[in-house]
């Protein structure tokens, strides 16, 4: 996920968030406790109680908070002051200058609010590499690409062919 654009699009008021981050930094400097907020709802039940309807948010809560893939040490908490860095992050800043090696971009074909399809397309478009490939796994959403064999399999097949062609042995 490209955190900067994703976070900027999710927040109702980026400027106000940054103002609040500044206030929180000041409070913490003066001895207040560090504020930690959830990344996503802690459960699907909590998401339902908050009237969450975004399919990607619900899939994230199901995967990260309730599935067998959930890490037992995950707190699902983000330091609130970290929003300042996340909101300004740009993963593509130096792509045109530095990404000349062969590039394989794989995205799920079901677009959602995570912006992953668009981020993959942007990476592909910005890269000056001569040998690059953009592969769409039709029907897959962002979180499907993590663990569902019917979507991961085609991605692995594509990567295998790509690596066989471009990685020296």
UniProtKB/TrEMBL annotation:
Biased composition (Basic and acidic residues): 25-40
InterPro entries: AB_hydrolase_fold, Polyketide_trans_af380
SUPFAM superfamilies xref list: alpha/beta-Hydrolases
Region annotation Disordered: where it falls in the sequence: 21-40
Coiled coil: none
Annotated protein name in UniProt: Fermentation-respiration switch protein FrsA (DUF1100 family)
Annotated source species: Rhizobium mongolense
């Amino acid at each position: 996920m490209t955190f900067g654009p994703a976070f900027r699009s999710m927040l109702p008021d980026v400027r106000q968030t940054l103002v609040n981050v500044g206030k929180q930094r000041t409070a913490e400097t003066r001895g207040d406790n560090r504020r930690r907020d959830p990344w996503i709802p802690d459960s699907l039940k909590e998401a339902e109680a908050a009237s969450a309807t975004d399919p990607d948010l619900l899939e994230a809560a199901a995967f990260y908070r309730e599935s067998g893939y959930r890490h037992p040490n995950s707190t699902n908490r983000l330091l609130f002051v970290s929003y300042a860095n996340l909101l300004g992050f740009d993963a593509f800043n130096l792509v045109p200058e530095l990404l000349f090696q062969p590039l394989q971009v794989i995205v799920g074909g079901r677009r959602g609010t995570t912006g992953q399809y668009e981020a993959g397309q942007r990476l592909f478009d910005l890269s000056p590499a001569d040998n690059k490939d953009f592969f769409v796994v039709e029907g897959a959403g962002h979180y499907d690409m993590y663990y569902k064999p019917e979507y991961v399999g085609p991605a692995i097949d594509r990567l295998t062919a790509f690596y066989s062609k471009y990685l020296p042995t």
